Amino acid sequence: MAVFTEVSEAQADDLMQSLNLGKLTALRGIEGGIENTNYFATTSQGEYVLTLFERLTKEQLPFYLFLMKHLAGRGIPVPDPAANRDGDILHTVSGKPAAVVNKLAGKSQLQPQAVHAAAVGDMLARMHLAGADFNRSQPNLRGLPWWNETVPVVLPHLDEAQAALLRSELAFQNHIAASSAYSALPRGPVHADLFRDNVMFDGEQLTGFFDFYFAGVDTWLFDLAVCLNDWCIDLPSGLHDSERAQAMLKGYAAVRPLSAAERDLLPAMLRAGALRFWISRLWDYHLPREASMLKPHDPTHFERVLRGRIAQPLSL
Ligand SMILES: Nc1ncnc2c1ncn2[C@@H]1O[C@H](COP(=O)(O)OP(=O)(O)OP(=O)(O)O)[C@@H](O)[C@H]1O
Ligand SMILES: N[C@@H](CCO)C(=O)O
């Protein structure tokens, strides 16, 4: 259940009418998700998603919402936040910041084949290019500074071998981030959390992707590494699937070829992507927040992925 804040039909109807989206005919709480309150709202005009932001602030939200609007305007299939007569896309419902977006068609593909990985690679590259001239900037709030802050907090919960791995990988990533090769990587707005549950498919056709609330400005290669670490890793073994990875890389490079610096640093960014989600899952697991984390994700999965990425670096 991901309804942390109740919204009445009257409240939702008022909002939908102020957005010129028609009269509310149905309102249904959405069960998935652990961060925000989400409802499907049906009106006389169509189907929408109403989100009340439980943790993100009014200062952080414009970056995500305007990025979605920018990408949607460029034909990227992402939810388009609805504006009121004054052009505002960030609203207030029950005292919480809120947004209304169009409902995307399709469903998640939780057992992807190479064809799905290729479609994600293609779409990710299109998103990177379409976002290149987005005029707002916000860092990836789950990037290196957050890893440096959070590792000492989770270390006491680990056994000796895990703690040694976490410390040494963090040192490696600090070293990489200070290198001139890393500075040469192209960057821009990235999704940073484009896992299987955030992409919709109709058969083999990618129909859209959502959940931009970990987006930020970072290297495009990091975004690709996050996708490779989810779409091209077998569950629950954590083993790399070469066929899906080659398909994703090919799909991406057909739209935006990787530079020499990106090819060189792909193994290091695959490790960075695994480290990022190992840390966040450890943090969520050992330091649960009130009224959230109904079912924390397994941190050991990304420990396995990281060990695999170190033992068998992916070479291009
Ligand atoms: N624009 C959309 N179109 C269709 N379905 C959506 C849309 N936005 C959200 N959903 C549905 O709502 C569910 C929850 O949304 P989401 O994943 O964004 O939750 P969250 O709590 O905000 O984030 P998290 O996944 O990080 O816990 C999704 O799994 C999806 O089924
Ligand atoms: N994709 C994240 C959850 C937050 O969206 C994870 O699997 O740890």
UniProtKB/TrEMBL annotation:
This is Homoserine kinase. Belongs to the pseudomonas-type ThrB family. It catalyses: L-homoserine + ATP = O-phospho-L-homoserine + ADP + H(+). The lineage of its organism: Bacteria, Pseudomonadati, Pseudomonadota, Betaproteobacteria, Burkholderiales. Keywords: Amino-acid biosynthesis, ATP-binding, Kinase, Nucleotide-binding, Threonine biosynthesis, Transferase. Residues 27-258 form the Aminoglycoside phosphotransferase domain. The keyword tRNA processing does not apply. The keyword Disulfide bond does not apply. One of its GO terms (molecular function) is homoserine kinase activity. It comes from Limnohabitans lacus. Coiled coil: none annotated. CDD domains: HomoserineK_II. Its EC number is 2.7.1.39. InterPro entries: Aminoglycoside_PTrfase (IPR002575), Homoserine_kinase_II (IPR005280), Kinase-like_dom_sf (IPR011009), Pseudomonas-type_ThrB (IPR050249). It is an enzyme of class 2 (transferase). Pathway: Amino-acid biosynthesis; L-threonine biosynthesis; L-threonine from L-aspartate: step 4/5.
